[in-house]
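Bit of a strange request maybe. I'm writing a small parser for structure token strings and I need a real example to test against, not something I typed by hand. Could someone generate the tokens for this chain?
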Amino acid sequence: MKSSFKIRRSVLKFLMWLIIICVIGFMVFLGLRISGKNRLYRKSENKRPDMNVAMADWALEESNNPETPSESVPLIQIDEDNDNWEEGDIRYKGVHYRYNDEMLTFLFLGIDKNGTVKEAKNSVDGGQSDAIFLLALNPKTMEASVIGVNRDTITDIDMYSQNGTFLGTVQAQLTLQHGYGDGKELSCERSVAAVSKLFYNLPIHGYCAINYGAIPKINDAVGGVELVALEDIGNANKLVFKEGQKVHLKGDQAVVYLRSRDCTSFGSAGRRTERQKQYLLAYADTAKKAVKKDVSLLVTLYNTIKQYMVTDVTIDEISYFSTQVDDYKFDKENMFSVPGETEMGEKFEEFHVDEKGMYELILKVFYEVIED
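Reply from user aminoacidic:
Good idea to test on real output. This should exercise your parser:
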């Protein structure tokens, strides 16, 4: 009887300790989520896009055009007759808009480096960003939006000498900005600043830059990705994918589909961006199914690609939104591209942003309609 009593007491003690450990674990996770949420939103506290910057030539032209309806000209001012008007609100085409300060926005960069992340030899060899995307999470509507940015977008970038001396700000292709840095955190921070400025000082809560050498590992971790080729794609003068062909991308096939472009074909960078957007949508759907089968996949994937990746997103920040990400709606209706046109410059193609279209895109994704 004494032996049986001791066993029961040992089991009870074990269960008590198990409960304590579980409670502590839950509290730690809850603490991480809270601190992660606070850290993310501190990055954008009292910040919003400066839409006055957006009201440049196109807005001035429309305001001076007698044929333009007055309500089609953007207004950023205090509406004294509206009790529901707040500083920074906008009225455009008769609609009252307010920046959604609960938005979480992350910059993703695909870097033209094959190997693992290494510090650049000098301040001009950080690697170009061949893929540039913004991920915008809206906790109010539980919608995830992705905005593709053409690598050849002409915008302000900061130039540096090989030894890191600041040379000045020039108008050039956005892809170049990442190269002016250390190939690691400094390059990413400068890219974040350039993209934020392009979007009228939009708050960006984090970044993730991945060398293209990680693509086969990311792709194959979910069993490959199936899609229909958007165009003929060749590699070393050999046709690899034919437009309209249904393919299941495995290994280096994903690299070819995502990176290849014919530089002699006008507008190839823009068409590649469309392929990358298509792949992201297909990958998200495939990954979601794979994670349901194996919840440890995300940890495995992170450990696999971390040596190819540079990010400032911390563990507690991941803990905050990782539990919600499955609830977000993400489909082709939430896939956007910065509007504009590609023109031939003196030497290279240049993508020039349609400022009015950009203004309306920012309103659509990052602002909410306010009922007067």
